[in-house]
Amino acid sequence: MTAAIFFVAYGLQVQCLKMAASEGTAIEQSGSLNQTDGYEKKCIFCKIVNKEVDTEVIYFDEELACFKDIKPGAPHHYLVVPMKHIGNCKSLKKDHAPLVEKMVEVGKAMLQKNGITDLNDIRLGFHWPPFCSVTHLHLHVLAPASLMGFTSRIFYRPDSYWFITAEQLLQRLNSFNENT
Ligand SMILES: [Zn+2]
Ligand SMILES: [Zn+2]
Fold first, then answer.
1. Which of 8, 35, 48, 70 is 20 to 30 A away from residue 25, measured at CA?
2. Low-confidence ranges of the chain (pLDDT < 70)
């Protein structure tokens, strides 16, 4: 790894941890002691979907919820999360693929509902641990991708080792054998 890449990556991680902290989100400690039945009491996203905090949930069904990212990286920036606390994208198994697909569908539907017509100019994906280690699985939905600023382009950069697009994650999950 060159020094330059290291510093970009390191800076990114620090920034992400700050973002996570500013969201009031518990950073993942090794092993989660507070998890009971899909609800983790220190998790801000669990609080949001259970309407314990003031964040406006703009969509929800029995499985998923959607709300705006508090630090938008593009004119439209939504987060789609499962109602139940599920860990980060690295921990997902093959049988999570339908859930991820549904997260993508909801993300696209939210964009369309809010006036985005060019679904080729969007960015959908997940931060790869340890970058942005907010524990609760969340899909970043950004549009238009062409209007993302310099920092956002780095933060949500496809083919980087800190961000995986929804498409790449689905390929990964579908490449797994059953039960792995
Ligand atoms: Zn949670
Ligand atoms: Zn994130």
1. 8
2. 1-36, 132-133, 179-180
